[in-house]
Write a structure and sequence with these properties.
Layout lengths: L7 E3 L1 H30 L8 H25 L1 E3 L13 E7 L2 E7 L11 E2 L4 H6 L7 E5 L5 E11 L3
Parallel strand pairs: 1-2, 4-5
Antiparallel strand pairs: 3-4, 3-7, 6-7
Helix pairs in contact: 1-2
Length: about 160
């Protein structure tokens, strides 16, 4: 598997859901927002037209989401099951010991919407710290509050949706 900093692990289900969202936003979504902008534009003075400004703002957010989805889908590692070799990598369920407690999470894209598991991106502080570590390794990452947190990798297993 070739790794770059822009790759993210996605389950097949998450990939399919995001691809459908992108198709909806890129096609019917763009058409709908263009019609709303045109209808608001026909109402007259654009400086005091709340509907026009709201539609333009929504259009900007939609275009940003389209760019985000396009980049994510172009660089996704989709549903590849990593080797069960004790090395942490995207697509692995990881159990760590941190601050006296054990915590288990999936290392992958935050776009994976499986309510039953916690997901940490490989770009997050903890995700970046454990990515590439092996069972038994202790790594350190900087928490959002600036403190250094030690994490010991206790167990890894490939994620199966």
């Amino acid at each position: 598997m070739t790794e770059t900093t822009n790759q993210s692990y996605l389950t097949q289900a998450a990939h399919d859901r995001l691809k459908a969202e992108l198709e909806e936003l890129s096609g019917p979504g763009r058409t709908e927002i263009a019609k709303r902008i045109e209808a608001a534009r026909e109402e007259g003075d654009l400086r005091e037209n709340g509907g026009y400004h709201a539609a333009k703002e929504e259009q900007g957010k939609m275009e940003a989401r389209i760019r985000q989805l396009t980049q994510l889908l172009e660089n996704a590692i989709i549903g590849e099951t990593p080797a069960d070799d004790g090395v942490v990598e995207p697509g692995m369920m990881v159990t760590v010991e941190m601050l006296g407690d054990e915590e288990t999470f999936l290392l992958g894209s935050r776009e994976i919407s499986d309510e039953s598991i916690q997901v940490f991106s490989e770009k997050s502080p903890i995700g970046a710290a454990v990515n590439g570590a092996s069972v038994g390794d202790t790594v350190t990452f900087e928490a959002p509050n600036g403190k250094q947190v030690e994490v010991k990798v206790v167990h890894t297993t490939p994620y199966t949706a």
